[in-house]
Amino acid sequence: MANERKFSSKVVDGIEQAPARAMLRATGFDKADFSKPQIGVASLWSMVTPCNMHINTLADQAVIGADNAGAKGVLFNTITISDGIANGTIGMKYSLVSREVIADSIETVVGCQGFDGLVTIGGCDKNMPGCVMAMARLDRPSVFVYGGTIRPGKNRTDIVSVFEAVGKHAKGEYDLIDVEQIEETAIPGPGSCGGMYTANTMASAIEALGLSLPGSSAMEAESPEKLEDCRRASAAVKMLLEQDIRPSHILTRKAFENAITVIIALGGSTNAVLHMLALANIVNVPLSLDDFTEIGQRVPVLSDLRPSGKYLMSELIEIGGIQPLMKRLLNKGLLHGDCLTVTGKTLAENLAEVEDYPADQQIIRDFDNPVKATSHLVVLKGNLSPTGAVAKISGKEGLAFTGSARVFHSEEEALAAILDGTVVKGDVIVIRYEGPKGGPGMREMLSPTSAVMGKGLGNDVALITDGRFSGGSHGFVVGHVTPEAMDGGPIAVVENGDTISIDAQSMEIKLHISDEELAQRLSQWQKPEPRYRRGVLAKFAANVTSAAEGALTDVDLDL
After folding, report:
1. Which among 34, 200, 224, 386 would be 20 to 30 A from 326, CA to CA?
2. What is the C-alpha separation between 397 and 107, in angstroms, rounded?
């Protein structure tokens, strides 16, 4: 039998640990608790965002679940930020940085307190990968719980509806009252953004990896099912302790292939590319942008979900969530059924009794009628991005675009130019110095992309950036351009009026100047001064890797 108290015993056993026990008695421990395995419950509760405002209730249920399973649940908190609130402002520079801070903070508490197992409960874009990155680093029996999706707003609106209303106002289609009415009703309560944006994408990917209980990714935030999910998660950790099943046993190369397959089938966010690369790096699983290309050639987009599609996550939940889709993918030979999961069973065993979707549903397409026959996540390379960029091409935007560069050195400059009419049909909007180092923090471009759609330019312009995109972004957009401008990548020397072509079929992004001209421009380029010299943004910029490697600060140190 596994040693269920491998870590907590060092904190509470023996006469010399009497002071520690005294401190813990004050927090609610009694004598019997000291002989139980301790399960930490990392709560991402916060009132800074609706995505996480209910998680205190969920965390309480996880503690109850641990106690009922014969362990001792111990609740602690860490931070979160809100992409939806910060988007379009300098505050968004802290978004990707928060992923690293969250992972660091969970690792710090669990490592210090000697918890034997861990439940993490997250509900927004960066705290979810931050949770699983910490789970991977600690490699103790762990389960991730998704906080759940939000219910639709009035007239099936959501947060992206509000962003796009801003563009429609600039176009003259909406007046201020129209915008205010959408603003007031689009976010009706707790939960993460309601389409297949980054939160729902990552919840689905984490379940496909095997780190969440089956069905955890497809529950509403305010539901009896989500409360039960939290109780069951802690009981699962107790079982994992008994069997000594850890993230390192689950996070295999095959598990990552499963996650990528599900991300593609769902039409998920480009941010998932960044997070999968980062997590794989932590557990030393070889994974690169090229793997997304290879898997994407055989996996179709099957879901008609927002932002590119019609339906909301709550509507997918009503017909069974992602489990029937995963079973379809398994039966088609596109998933590895032998992967271990946090149930202690394989993926195939978890899916054995899952029933298919209702015959009349319209959300998940059949394999002979896909939304797109190959992946919407297209890795582009070329003289403008030698080490790769990530495009989100559903096919509705077309598969190629050639236009004239209109260059901006920040998201704010680009947004102003879109709203005031400077950006016109045929432009390729280039937003640079927004990469992991240059921003720093690799801001999402949801405000500019939503403004483009709201202005009615979605089919007429393209946007490329060394920053990244919200899961809510759609249109002809290319992010994660590497090397980034701050590293002297070719995007740093694009000039207004240059012709740029983007081809999703040949998977090429090209700046139409000669090799000699490009080399001359690069030789004359001078690196800008850092925007920050102290604080968390400066530390992130000094340590972060390329977006092609996951924009990670947790790297092997060659000391």
Report:
1. 224
2. 42
- 3-state SS assignment for residue 404: strand
Cβ atoms of 553 and 543 within 8 Å: the answer is yes
Is the pLDDT higher at 166 or at 114? 114
How does pLDDT run across 276-300, given as a tens digit for each residue?
Answer: 999 999 999 999 999 999 999 999 9
Please provide the DSSP assignment of 91-107 as one string.
GGHHHHHHHHHHHHHHH
The tens digit of pLDDT for each residue in 323-346 reads 999 999 999 999 999 999 999 999
CA gap 454, 166 in Å, rounded: 7
* Euclidean distance between CA atoms 313 and 300, whole angstroms: 19
**In whole angstroms, what separates CA 539 from the centre of its chain?**
22
Q: Which residue among the candidates 204, 447, 470, 546 is catalytic per the annotation?
A: 470
Tally the C-alpha atoms within 13 A of residue 305's C-alpha that lie toward its C-beta: 30
For position 522, what pLDDT does the model report? Answer: 98
Closest CA relative to residue 329, chosen from 418, 264, 270: 264
Other beta carbons within 10 Å of 120: 30
User: Quick one: angle between helices 271-282 and 289-296, nearest 10?
Assistant: 120
Residue 136 has pLDDT above 60, yes or no: yes
Strands (DSSP E) found in 447-535: 462-465, 476-482, 499-503, 508-511
DSSP string, 101-134: HHHHHHHHHHHHHT-SEEEEEE-STTHHHHHHHH
CB atoms within 10 A of CB 523: 8
The answer to whether the beta carbons of residues 540 and 100 sit under 8 Å apart is yes
Q: What's the token pair of residue 121?
A: 């409960």
162 close to 186: Cβ distance less than 8 angstroms: yes
d(CA 555, CA 559): 12
Residue 18 reports pLDDT greater than 60: yes
Mark whether 95 is an active-site residue: no
489-492, Cβ contacts within 8 angstroms, sequence gap of 24 or more: 489/385, 489/386, 490/383, 490/384, 490/385, 490/386, 490/518, 490/522, 491/384, 491/385, 491/430, 491/432, 491/464, 491/466, 492/432, 492/433, 492/522, 492/525
- Read off the pTM: 0.96
pLDDT, tens only, 57-89: 999 999 999 999 999 999 999 999 999 899 889
